[in-house]
Specification:
Radius of gyration: 25 Å
Structural class: alpha/beta
Number of strands: 9
Helix content: 40-55%
Order of helices and strands: HHHHHHHEHEHHEEEHEEEHEHHHHHHH
Distance between the termini: 74 Å
Number of helices: 19
């Protein structure tokens, strides 16, 4: 007991509790709660427990702090506004019950699986708010990895174990790499996107939550036929395998199955692009570079100091052009910087500019969620060199061979 109390008795935990009590209840009410329950702040079913049930954001920052909060004991990055926006959307969907279906489109490398899938699943099942959650991953190994990450939180996170008890017990139910039955009689199952979910249920209960994480891959968007097949599978299976809301005497007593699709745009008519147009989905779309109205990525990387930097990077006469380009960027950093989605994650030169120049199409798709130029080849900045300059280059001789 004393050891459990010690992990909660920190300045961070106390300040966080007060901050979110004030945010939810107001200063006066928060003061009354703290005074009345001063001996029951961290106990099971205590103030922190109750607050976490009312605020997904607080739950993540408190009970999943080893994942989301930088400290001397971890190597976590500081969260960006986009992560709080994801939690706010989940708050609206699952606590306020404003809508049933969400389409979250954020760039590759924005910790979407951790911030959304993992955080939401752990929250739902700590409180028993979802009887049966199904996670749809791109591949089977991704599904297995997700289950492993959830299990690690439920079994090894001291904040969760003390507050919610032992939620995993192999003697109670199924616990394997694909499925977890918890001691609070709820179930989490992960499946690959190629698996059929028709008729799926847990002890007679149809899925109450479905989360699709990168549910489409390159093969799903290669052709119009492939895209139509993916769209049909989504409508025939995912949209139909859950349950509808129960309304009694004009009052909702049970919500419909909640559906979340999270990923990046891969084609203008891919699954995620089509869900953007669906009237029954709330879409959240974010891009790695925060552009001004009518501004384009080309306006940033193909003009001014960035264009000069590019010429350095692609100067074959330099011994280390990339390093020289980076030093040029550092020298003019204040003038060359621009607003980005995750300040603590991406270096503007290495993670954005270089990748844009190297493969614009992939960059626009993966980082900007813009598939408008897929299939369009553009050749820009063709520089004419004199015969003397051409002869000064060192070329690798690759002989053509017939097989």
């Amino acid at each position: 007991m004393q050891q459990a109390q010690n992990i909660f008795d920190t300045k961070y935990n106390k300040q966080l509790l007060i901050q979110y009590l004030k945010k939810i209840y107001g200063s006066e009410k928060a003061k009354q709660i703290l005074e009345k329950h001063k001996n029951n702040l961290w106990e099971p079913y205590g103030v922190a427990y109750s607050l976490g049930k009312r605020s997904i954001e607080y739950f993540c920052l408190m009970f999943l702090q080893n994942t989301f909060v930088p400290s001397d004991n971890n190597s976590q990055r500081s969260l960006a506004p986009v992560h709080y926006e994801v939690w706010d959307l989940l708050q609206r969907q699952f606590i306020k019950d404003e809508f049933d279906k969400a389409n979250i489109i954020i760039p590759r490398g924005t910790a979407k699986t951790t911030t959304c899938d993992l955080a939401l699943t752990v929250w739902l099942h700590c409180y028993g708010l979802s009887k049966f959650t199904v996670i749809g991953a791109k591949k089977e190994e991704d599904a297995f990895q997700f289950i492993g990450n959830v299990r690690k939180q439920l079994e090894e996170n001291p904040y969760i174990e003390y507050t919610f008890g032992k939620l995993i017990n192999k003697r109670f139910g199924t616990v394997n790499k694909q499925e977890i039955e918890l001691t609070n009689e709820t179930c989490i199952k992960a499946v690959s996107s190629g698996s059929s979910v028709r008729g799926m249920n847990y002890k007679g209960t149809r899925p109450t939550v479905f989360i699709a994480d990168d549910y489409q891959d390159a093969n799903d968007v290669l052709s119009e036929e492939a895209r139509e097949k993916k769209w049909k599978k989504w409508n025939d299976e995912i949209e139909e395998f859950g349950d509808t809301a129960v309304i009694r005497d004009g009052k909702k007593i049970k919500s419909a199955t909640k559906i979340i699709c999270i990923g990046t745009i891969m084609h203008n008519s891919c699954l995620i692009s089509r869900l953007m147009q669906a009237k029954d989905y709330i879409t959240m779309l974010r891009r790695a570079i925060l552009l001004e109205p009518d501004q384009t990525v080309e306006d940033i990387f193909d003009t001014g100091l960035w264009a000069e930097c590019k010429r350095i990077v692609y100067n074959n006469k330099l011994e280390n052009p990339v390093e020289d380009g980076y030093q040029f960027y550092l020298k003019h950093k204040l003038e060359m910087d621009f607003p980005i989605l995750w300040e603590d994650k991406w270096d503007r030169f290495n993670d954005l500019a270089i990748k844009y120049w190297k493969n614009k199409e992939s960059f626009m798709q993966e980082k900007m969620n813009d598939a408008s130029n897929i299939g369009e080849k553009k050749f820009k900045s063709n520089r004419v060199e004199s015969p003397e300059e051409i002869e000064s280059h060192t070329f690798t001789n690759v002989a053509a061979r017939s097989v």
